[in-house]
Design brief:
homodimer; 511 residues; alpha/beta; TIM Barrel; 10-stranded mixed sheet; 19 helices
């Protein structure tokens, strides 16, 4: 063989490897083929919907320190008393009717675009943790390095389809400047759809300006490239931080997720049907407000539902009450016709132990079967969201690959029916060497990167590790193998310049 | 207050405490209010059913070393070639038609009777593990003391409704005598329904004789008091050990569970639709055989579905492929009209870590939503069933209490709707001190005995324990608090006498 043809072969082999690698690196968003769990009867759902309207009309919802919002509601025909907005029965639901039931979120790599709504399901990582932890160094405040690591780990996780935001608080950067560094990291170290800050209108506008550098200003006029979480201050308050940020995204056609953070017994009643009515009232008020501002603008029905322990007051997740509320919220969202977002790997465990596995798995499968379209907090969550765990992150992300396979449903093709294999093997033999097994074994089962599936003896010989110990090696390996996605150098330079200028224009502030 | 009235008050208080205690000690079997997950379309199910009939007719199933079985099949019109029984299309399903779709299992304490079938769901503990383990002493072969401990722990678990059998192998008793000691322990240390041995016809008959001592001989003529697991030697073999044991139970109107132990890629095809067709063929053949022997006798559709790792050959559970097969099997059982049994806390993890929590929880919720009527292996399972873990047992059992609450569905009563509470609290406040919260907090949420729901600081102050470490203290506490259920001393003496006589009549044998 000539030197040239050898080189050609090597290049071809390298291309093949690279093609295979990119398939493994990234799974498309999910088209969920699993039937949703209809927990509540139509009659029960109507009762809850009636109660939500009663809440909005009779008790009302407060838009605090936002006179513009009050004007908007007054003009729409609501009864505004002080900051309290009383919304006539049926009005909020009617206004929600202009919100799109599905839309595309564009990524800077178009191959990573995602569809929000319908039977589509998208996983995003943890957000909002002040602390981080790993087995080597224990728990500590998060830093920008940790944040970048979680962006890179998300980008390296095949079944995390959305880059997220705010995986941990980078406490080594001033509060008023963090969003700039975080948004840069998201746009530079990932090429998937991402989230902007929702806790400050000026900072929200800066996140959008950075997206405009990447996508072009015009593109944002009619394409969704980012979302944000707008938390209702449950019960029944949208404060100006949230309503002003919501306005920034909505007016720019980007997608807020109206999310009451509702722990039963604290921010909502101690019973599920009451929480759901309050949740629905709060969500409808928020979504209706977006549609008054910009009819047809994209928005999501958010839910973040748990309970507080009646012994300690701490949040609990994965309990039957949380699961009930999650299934109910999914049904209410479908009836409202707005895409549904919920939390994923939620747990109250303080360390990635058996409890954490139970809580997270109960919640994650419930998100799938509740009909969620977007799952934030899909990986890494520990201690009621106070802590982003490196080990739990890669374990949850590994599990999401399995969950994604689950969502594909059961294949009943001729090949899966395997009648010839059963004929070939016959009674009393085994399928280990059957032709059908040899033809299918590479793709028949999902292979976990974390789960141990060896003999006990092999497991002991290799150190009797826990899943968390194996995950400790895995996240380091993933960070060391991480490859930056390509970016146009001119865009990168423009982003860096923007961040530098903005940071230089403000003194550090921790407010 | 007089001495007498003080004493009366104390007695009344004691009775109240005792009443409360017994409620906590024991939950009734579950009436599952959660909608089942219909994974496969009617068309897909018909395809699988058609394939199952093709397997039975064309390939056939072997009844090995059991000439009587072959005669029974021949008389029924099957085409018997050697030991291979070819069952004409439609015949097996038709024969299954006389099996009852539901029946009562009577416990020696009638308050513990259970209903098998319909929307009822019953949890039973682990069975069949050669090893046991706990955090103090690690892994070792099981003993009679371990077995008794697991019977006591099962009896002390509110959401374990069935005493099980064979939680671990008592290797310190000869193989041919173990079933006597185990059956005595089940009848003495628990008062719930139980299982008899299914691996030897003579021993099966002795288990039944012991039940007759407790319930009376006549009672068994028309009441089900025990079940047993009859494993098909997949693919497509019922050996004489199993068919002879099956005959013993069926002729005595007790309930065999026809359970192919089917790991995809080893005892079944590497693909799910093929495994389901083979499973259905094997189950239908076994159930049809019971109905030929004793039409109308109780029997269950058993499934034990997993896969083998294509890297190590070890069994894996909780993977998407197992979940798919479980949901499919539940649908097939409902269409056959026979109660459905499956496994519960299955996992391949070697230690009760995050992986074990993920696997067990995925499987357990899938049993609920697949429509299972009886879940064996509901608590304690580790390492593909090779090991019964004390810590995992109490963690799984604790979780079953939550799962049971989940099955109750979402309460939409006026109290749960909590409109007055939302009115009372209003915007911007909290529900912690609301009247509705105070009225409901004791029963609003299920309280785990294992899960940590405290602040991080409290958790650290109390030793930064894992769930397994907390479970280590819990199982010891449960064993130390265990109270024997009452038994008629004459019955106890008769049972002891029976065991002593039978053991004395045989030399020890380990075959």
């Amino acid at each position: 063989m000539s030197q040239k043809s050898k080189r050609t072969r090597r290049r071809r082999a390298a291309r093949r490897d690279s093609a295979r690698k990119s398939t493994l690196d990234r799974l498309p968003y999910i088209q969920n083929r699993i039937s949703y769990t209809e927990l509540l009867s139509s009659e029960a759902l109507e009762t809850i919907e009636h109660n939500a309207d009663t809440i909005l009309e009779e008790i009302g919802i407060e838009f605090r320190r936002d006179p513009e919002a009050l004007d908007v509601w007054r003009d729409a025909g609501a009864d505004v008393q002080g900051e309290r907005v009383h919304i006539p029965r049926g009005m909020a639901r009617k206004l929600c009717g202009t919100a799109p039931s599905r839309f595309t979120m564009h990524a800077r790599n178009p191959g990573c675009n995602i569809e929000i709504g319908g039977r589509n399901l998208v996983f995003a990582p943890i957000g909002g943790a002040p602390f981080v932890e790993d087995l080597d160094n224990g728990r500590r405040y998060g830093t920008m390095e940790d944040f970048e690591n979680f962006v890179k780990l998300s980008h390296s996780s095949p079944a995390i389809h959305h880059a997220g935001f705010h995986h941990c608080e980078p406490t080594d950067v001033a509060v008023n400047k963090r969003h700039l560094d975080m948004t840069y990291a998201l746009l530079r170290y990932s090429d998937r759809p991402f989230m902007g800050v929702g806790t400050h209108p000026e900072r929200a506008a800066q996140c959008i300006e950075m997206a405009e550098i990447v996508f072009g200003k015009d593109f944002l006029d009619d394409h969704v490239v980012m979302n944000t979480i707008i938390n209702v201050n449950s019960p029944l308050v949208l404060d100006e931080t949230m309503s002003e940020s919501l306005k920034v995204y909505t007016r720019r056609n980007q997608a807020p997720i109206v999310t009451p953070a509702l722990l039963a017994g604290a921010m909502g009643p101690v019973t599920a049907a009451g929480c759901l009515a309050q949740l629905l009232a709060e969500v409808m008020a928020g979504i209706a407000f977006t549609q008054l501002l910009n009819p047809g603008s994209p928005v999501l029905f958010g839910s973040f539902l748990g309970a507080v322990s009646m012994r300690s007051g701490a949040p609990v997740f994965g309990t039957p009450e949380s699961l009930h509320m999650l299934y109910g919220a999914g049904q209410l969202a479908r009836r409202l016709g707005v895409p549904f977002r919920t939390g994923g790997s939620l747990c109250s465990a303080k360390t990635p132990d058996f409890q954490a596995g139970q809580e997270s798995t109960a919640m994650t499968y419930a998100t799938v079967m509740s009909g969620a379209n977007l799952v934030h907090q899909g990986a890494g969550w520990l201690d009621g969201g106070l802590c982003a765990s490196y080990e739990k992150f890669v374990m949850d992300a590994d599990h999401l690959v399995m969950v994604q396979r689950f969502c594909e449903g059961l294949d009943v093709s001729q090949n899966s029916q395997a009648l010839d294999a059963i004929r070939e093997v016959g009674p009393g033999s085994h399928f280990l060497g059957a032709k059908h097994t040899l033809d299918n074994y590479r793709t028949a089962f999902i292979d976990s990167e974390v789960w141990d599936a060896r003999s006990y003896e092999q497991w002991v010989a290799e150190g009797s590790t826990t899943a968390a110990q194996r995950a400790n090696a895995l996240w380091k390996q993933k960070l060391s193998n991480y490859e930056e996605p390509a970016i146009d150098p001119a865009i990168d330079a423009a982003l860096c310049d923007y961040v530098t200028r903005k940071k230089a224009s403000m003194p550090d502030s921790n407010a």
